[in-house]
Amino acid sequence: GAGVSQSPSNKVTEKGKDVELRCDPISGHTALYWYRQSLGQGLEFLIYFQGNSAPDKSGLPSDRFSAERTGGSVSTLTIQRTQQEDSAVYLCASSLRQGNHEQYFGPGTRLTVT
Amino acid sequence: AQSVAQPEDQVNVAEGNPLTVKCTYSVSGNPYLFWYVQYPNRGLQFLLKYITGDNLVKGSYGFEAEFNKSQTSFHLKKPSALVSDSALYFCAVREGSARQLTFGSGTQLTVLP
Prior knowledge:
Number of strands of chain A: 10
Largest sheet of chain B: 6 strands, mixed
Number of strands of chain B: 12
Structural class of chain A: mainly beta
Number of helices of chain A: 0
Helix content of chain A: under 10%
Number of helices of chain B: 0
Oligomer: heterodimer
Order of helices and strands of chain B: EEEEEEEEEEEE
Order of helices and strands of chain A: EEEEEEEEEE
Distance between the termini of chain A: 37 Å
Largest interface: A-B, 22 and 21 residues
Radius of gyration of chain B: 13 Å
Structural class of chain B: mainly beta
Distance between the termini of chain B: 41 Å
Helix content of chain B: under 10%
């Protein structure tokens, strides 16, 4: 079946502009995660959605970052007033539910802030 | 708090030789442990996981990992490396009460022909 998809695959934006990144999880997966991967570094957890529960926003680096998940499926990560340090690959993952189930990752969106 | 360490940024091995990519973890409860692989310009792919049971876990592409509770390690192994195994490998841990995975910094594996 289809895997996790993300769009756009690449995004170049000017400093100060807002950007929206989209994630379509695997159908039937109730858990959705956003991570950030900076050059030469590991993955940094950003936010987690599980079903209709309140999201876990503990990883968001600043109030410029927000995310929503509509209808328990598609998620959008929004970065307002982008800064150069926001440049990274943003990865989305989904899993069947919270627990020991492995996460399936999308190909990522490479964001470059100029 | 949960954490994971991959002490080697780079591992080089000759094709046909056994490979080991090291991972150690720290959790306050029982760990759930995972290995992922990332090929250039692609997302992470799940390789294997340890939840409970046998300490030796077998996964995709001939990889296996051994859970060692006393050494808090979960090293990734393969008996005979292939050039196509060259990629970035991430170890991840989640303790029972946590919601998200914590990833290591990654180890770049290069298999030389």
